[in-house]
Design brief:
Layout (H helix, E strand, L loop, with lengths): L1 E7 L7 E5 L5 E5 L4 E5 L10 E2 L6 E4 L6 E5 L4 E5 L7 E4 L1 E3 L22 E2 L9 E7 L15 E7 L5 E4 L7 E8 L5 E7 L6 E7 L7 E10 L20 E4 L11 E6 L7 E8 L8 E17 L4 E8 L13 E8 H4 L6
Parallel strand pairs: 10-14
Antiparallel strand pairs: 1-24, 2-3, 3-4, 4-5, 6-7, 7-8, 8-9, 11-12, 12-13, 13-14, 15-16, 16-17, 17-18, 19-20, 20-21, 21-22, 22-23, 23-24
Amino acid sequence: MNMQHLFDSTNKQRIPKIVVAADGSILAFNRSCGLIRRSEDGGENWSDPARLESGGGNVIIDDNTGDVMIVRPADARLWRSRDHGRTWREESIDVRPNAIGHGGVDCVPVNLNASESGITLQHGEHAGRLLMPARLQPPCGDNAQEFWAYNYNTAIYSDDHGRTWQVGEPVQSGTGEGTLAEMSDGRIYYNSRCHMAVDAKRLIAWSHDGGHRWVDWQSCETLREVGEPFYFKYGSKPSYGCNAGLVRMPHEATNGRDVLLYSAPDNPGGTRVRMTVWASFDRAATWTLKRSIYGGPSAYSSLIADRHGKIYLLFESGMSANPKRDVDHSRILLARFNLEWLLGGDDE
């Protein structure tokens, strides 16, 4: 494994995102403060941080065209790059609310900022669709505890290369900040942070229609939430949880097998420490393998893998063994490794 320090971070300037562009370039983002770094040699060397005009939003690669997009549906805007992240152009988009009126620009806007990056669907009747995990926070976009029961994850999708986005139906209430991955049978797996779980378990849902409707809600027995010192003021002590990373490795790197990787702090019910990667080889039915990446303070993360099997984990980390929340993600680090290393081998 190789570790690099890519960004400095603070409590208000954070949110790592990482994607692989169509030409193989690796694009790393510090989303809160709109910074990007590019690597054209598999993460060995990086450009200096450059500031983007887009501010918040989230990132997706359109595998149909090769475009890189930063999508900000709350303002009905996106920034598109046709040269793999070198230059960007701002565009207006159309955001269509779901059946209960959530997600439009004028009513409970969509929040993409801290969810995992989007994907292009590869299988079934919706192949080519752009799909992004999203969060809605009715009644007024507030993360206050009294509104957690009304908050829910969802997804937004586009069938016209990003010009129009439809807001999907709810994932289970009490969720926030999601990750998703497509299986080779066309099903889509959704893994959610949960603000309401007293058992510190992640929440899972599935879509069978390209990401519009989410069904089969369940708790994950293996993937657990951290707690953090946020106690519910109405008496119980649910896990506040944490953003997580998720990727299905490209089939070129796995001989066609669905190999899922998931990243998060590994300290169920406790503070945000021990950044860890889990692997599933049976379409998320079980997570039989995990390996520690960093033992210290660890928070939000983003995962991606390229066609050659290289895995990139961009995550917030801190220096203190007993961090306070305002100092536990002072750096954004990049870990590079491969599946052989994850399985216990010695290669990177």
